[in-house]
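Onboarding guide, step 5: your first structure request.
Type a short instruction followed by the sequence, for example:

Predict the 3D structure of this protein.
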Amino acid sequence: WRPVSLGLPERFWIDRFTASPPYLYVSADERVFSTADKALHWEPVSGIVPAGSVVSCLAADARTLYAAFSRSAPDPDVSGEGRLAPVGRHRLVGLGVMRSTDRGWEPINAGLPDEPYVNCLDADGPDLYAGLMRPMESNGDAVVSMPSGRGFFYSHDGGASWHAAASGLPADEMVLGLAARGGTLF
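The system replies with structure tokens like these:
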């Protein structure tokens, strides 16, 4: 093992990564970085990500990078306008999938449900696959609702349109990880 962090933030935590040789992408310090020289030098992926968001997952195909973003938001059922919440209750809000081809980030969510929290994502050419879920919600130290599945979606046009995959997988099952290789999905 050897350090290969030139160009990454000084103190960072890499929480997601994906590779599409010769490119490697990581999310660190709430930003996304790429390298094409065996991790000798890192550059930030251009474009502005949604304010206050974090990367939920990454996928790449050649020079196209896909990222799912989310952020924490007050729960309107508890802390809505004009109401006082005894304990701050927040929930994770999915912001869906965005694509970058070095010209900035563009959202590609047509066909996904509102507030799509994408917890796993993979790309195989123009084919994209995503597992969606309802994240766990907590109220201080207490769990308010457990995570549950929200379906499995695919796109055969690079994210221009998404479709629910209803055959063989119950809609409420959580897809926690996936891999697509050569027309086979695991």
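Each response can be followed by summary notes, for example: The chain is about 0% helix and 50% strand.
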